[in-house]
């Protein structure tokens, strides 16, 4: 008699937590390395954030000059001392990464008396730019429930309740 109720509780828990909440969308990342430096960049919704380190010691390179070039567009990354990273928030430069594809990037780094030219291919997957359709779970992009999602969940709960009732009656030896 306990097992059907455990199954019902499990089904209710699954309905209460949609699967997309368990798997966040991957963040596009680029890595460029030379003998002396390593640059790791992360594309976010409205910015491109870069971390610059020494390749051999992994020590951060702070207050350097970092210029990023993609095709015919260039942008200078602004150093942020509070976080130790470099930021590009130029909407015109970032707009070119809105579509899925591979983007060759060139980095010009000047750190004191040292300078280096690095390159990398930056891949933006289609899954990152396509809108996720959560309508089967009754969720909009803002995570708000809609009537269709509630109806689906109520129907599944009723189905699970009916299955529990059937198995309990059958186990007791009564007619279902």
Describe the structure.
The chain is α+β, with helices and mostly antiparallel strands and 176 residues long. It folds into 2 domains: 2-23 and 132-172; 29-129, Sandwich (Immunoglobulin-like), CATH 2.60.40.10. 28% of the residues lie in helices and 34% in strands. It contains 4 helices and 8 strands. The chain has helices at 2-16, 91-94, 126-129, 147-172, and strands spanning 29-33, 37-43, 48-54, 65-70, 73-80, 85-88, 101-111, 114-124. The chain has an 8-stranded antiparallel beta sheet with strand order 1-2-3-6-5-4-7-8. A hairpin with a 4-residue loop joins strand 5 (73-80) and strand 6 (85-88). Helix 1 runs antiparallel to helix 4. The chain is elongated.
Features of this protein?
Immunoglobulin-like, alpha+beta, 176 residues, single chain
> Low-confidence parts lasting 5 or more residues at pLDDT below 50?
127-145
Average pLDDT works out at 80
Please tally the β strands and state the result: 8
Structural domains: how many: 2
Rg to the nearest angstrom?
Answer: 26 Å
**CATH class annotation of the largest domain:** Mainly Beta
By CATH, the topology of the largest domain is Immunoglobulin-like
């Amino acid at each position: 008699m306990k097992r059907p109720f455990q199954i019902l509780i499990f089904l209710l828990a699954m309905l209460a937590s949609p699967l997309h909440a368990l798997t966040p969308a991957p963040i596009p990342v680029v890595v460029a390395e030379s003998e002396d430096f390593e640059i790791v960049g992360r594309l976010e919704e409205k910015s491109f954030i870069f971390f610059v380190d020494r390749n051999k010691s992994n020590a951060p390179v702070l207050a350097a000059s970092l210029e990023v070039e993609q095709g015919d567009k260039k942008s200078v990354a602004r150093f942020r001392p509070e976080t130790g990273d470099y930021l590009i928030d130029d909407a015109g430069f970032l707009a070119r990464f809105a579509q899925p594809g591979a983007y060759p990037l060139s980095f010009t780094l000047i750190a004191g008396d040292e300078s280096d030219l690095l390159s990398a291919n930056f891949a933006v997957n289609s899954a990152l730019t396509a809108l996720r359709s959560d309508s089967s779970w009754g969720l909009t992009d803002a995570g708000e429930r809609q009537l269709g999602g509630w109806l689906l969940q109520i129907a599944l709960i009723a189905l699970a309740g009916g299955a529990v009732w059937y198995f309990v009656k059958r186990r007791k030896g009564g007619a279902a």
